[in-house]
Structure prediction request, 150 residues.
Amino acid sequence: MTAVKFRCRPFAPRPWKGRYSRVPGETTAFHLRFIKGNWWPVVEWRIGDETASCAMVDEGHVAVLVGAVNAGKSNLGAPSGGAFLIDEYGRVLVPASDRDRLHVTVVAECTGPLRFHDVFSAGEPFDLYDDRGLRCGDPWNRPCVGLGTI
Prediction:
């Protein structure tokens, strides 16, 4: 088990004026899903024809993250749950669309590991931030979640 825990510092949702160019697809964002009676962060991981929903490890401030994301959804007039992103600076960005355009709010800042249960490996945790041992050009063998470059 890692000594460093996931931390989340929420704040009042405010409009995001920065870049938000999400990579298209369901597996490229974090999601809040209703699991066993509670909203919980998951990452969708596709390997070949299989897609797994990997729940976040329950440590640190995960419940704080859930509250912040749902507060952002509510602030945008959207229902609870759904997609969100954490950018390279740890800012939690929450999108919602209406008929005319996409709206994004920033709701929190996070630090620490982003650990999820690997359902492809009997639930062994993996950390999306852990790039130790990788060099430029090495394949990334974990879920691809994040913002696009365009």
